[in-house]
Automatic annotation (TrEMBL):
One annotated GO molecular function: triose-phosphate isomerase activity
Example of a GO cellular component annotation carried by this entry: cytosol
Name recorded for this polypeptide: Triosephosphate isomerase
PROSITE patterns tied to this protein: TIM_2
Enzyme nomenclature, EC number: 5.3.1.1
CDD domains: TIM
Lineage: Bacteria, Bacillati, Actinomycetota, Actinomycetes, Propionibacteriales
GO biological process annotation, one example: glycerol catabolic process
Pfam families: TIM
Organism, scientific name: Microlunatus parietis
Pathway: Carbohydrate degradation; glycolysis; D-glyceraldehyde 3-phosphate from glycerone phosphate: step 1/1; Carbohydrate biosynthesis; gluconeogenesis
Enzyme class: isomerase
């Protein structure tokens, strides 16, 4: 049986400036390198800084077990798209993951299911792992949320080439909130997403995720997608320790 892998991702959104981003990356690289359990096959860690920080972040991480990804991409491979960045250029830089369809991009920048489908396909075409964000906009029960995220997922993957996908389940009402969604809600929706048919997908939870959550969700998610509660590298270290402990516990079963 293949061993279960835990995936921990962090998006820095637009919270930090350049110097703070690189200092944070160096701290995170140190935290990861000090932990023998943090190896990509068992506990996979990726961080998503802003576009200008991608290349220096890769340098700052300097061989530590931390992958760097982008927060967005354009769907075309090249052309007259002022201000945009292609999957081709991201791959050339050494970027391995790219976030697609985050709730803030859907809400503030008008990203539609069609755009998200094109971006997902572009990422996979160029060997990037899309971190595909889905989540219900309003607080509804788990059954209703499952219906909404399945529709989002089906639309996003409609023309997706083969390749690994990370599905980030982020109930929009829990993003930026003081607390994550209730454990039972996360468990129910992530279980439905895990059974959604794409066997190359990991399902991770985001929305006020932080230390303590992974242990409570034990076995029902493949990891976490962190925002604010990873700004302190010590908090991220705690989450990584929880992930490593979970992997050891699963191995012992
Ligand atoms: O949107 C998120 C990660 O992409 C979650 O953000 P917060 O953890 O800050 O709520």
């Amino acid at each position: 049986m293949s061993q279960h892998k835990i995936t921990i991702g962090v998006s820095l959104k637009m919270y930090f400036g350049h110097a703070r981003t690189l200092a944070w990356c160096r701290d995170v690289a140190r935290v990861a390198a000090q932990r023998p359990g943090i190896v990509p096959e068992r506990v996979e860690l990726f961080v998503l800084p802003t576009f200008p920080a991608l290349a220096p972040a890769i340098t700052a991480i300097d061989g530590a077990p931390v992958a760097v990804g982008a927060q967005d991409l354009h769907w075309a491979d090249s052309g007259a798209y002022t201000g945009e960045v292609s999957a081709v250029e991201l791959a050339e830089l050494g970027v391995r993951y790219v976030e697609v369809g985050h709730a803030e991009r859907r809400r503030l920048f008008g990203e539609t299911d069609e755009v998200i489908k094109l971006k997902t396909a572009a990422a996979l075409r160029h060997g990037l792992v899309p971190v595909l964000c889905v989540g219900e906009p309003d607080r509804v029960d788990a059954d209703a949320a499952i219906g909404i995220v399945h529709d989002q997922l089906d639309a996003a993957l409609a023309e997706a080439p083969a390749g690994r996908v990370i599905i980030a389940y982020e109930p929009v009402w829990a993003i930026g909130a003081p607390q994550p969604a209730p454990d039972e809600h996360i468990r129910a929706v992530c279980a439905a997403l895990r059974g959604s048919g794409r066997d190359t997908a990991s399902v991770i939870y985001g929305g006020a995720a932080g230390p303590g959550l992974l242990g409570r969700l034990e076995g029902t998610v493949d990891g976490l997608f962190l925002g604010r509660f990873a700004h302190d590298p010590a908090a991220l270290a705690t989450v990584l320790d929880e992930a490593a402990a979970l992997v050891i516990k699963e191995d012992a079963r």
